[in-house]
Amino acid sequence: MTGDDTTLIPENGAPPPTGPGTMRASDADRDRVAEFLNVAYSEGRLSRDEYDDRLAQALSARTFADLDLIVADLPVARATIPAPVGRINELAIASLACGLAQFMFGPLATIPAIVFGHMARHQIKRTGEQGAGLALAGLALGWTVAILAILLVVGMATSVTTHGMTR
Prior knowledge:
167 residues; 63% helix; 2 domains; rod-shaped; mainly alpha; 6 helices
């Protein structure tokens, strides 16, 4: 290379190395690495001095390879990103489907409707997904059929007991 660091052309005239690591990094790429370092520092993965050193390296990095070296020993951040807007919880859909399926297939779908509904509401609170109304509808249908089944069994037992005593 020449004495000037701004060129990537080797002195022997050969073409410069190519590949993803040799591509020039943009300001946005450096900012992403800086944010990644900030998260690692806030999680306690870097000391203050180490964070400062790596941040300075990130802001002066020229290529993707330079940026990769700065974060190579850090784990990928946990999935703390909220669910995308409009994403509907799958268990909420399953709860409603089971709640409606009770009318076609009988009480076999009652317990899954209730279980899926409670699980969906718990996940929705935790992740911020959509579908709370679907889960609630599945729960309402499931519990309604369960209560009606219990009342029917109690009513039949009472009827048998009452008719059995009158004979």
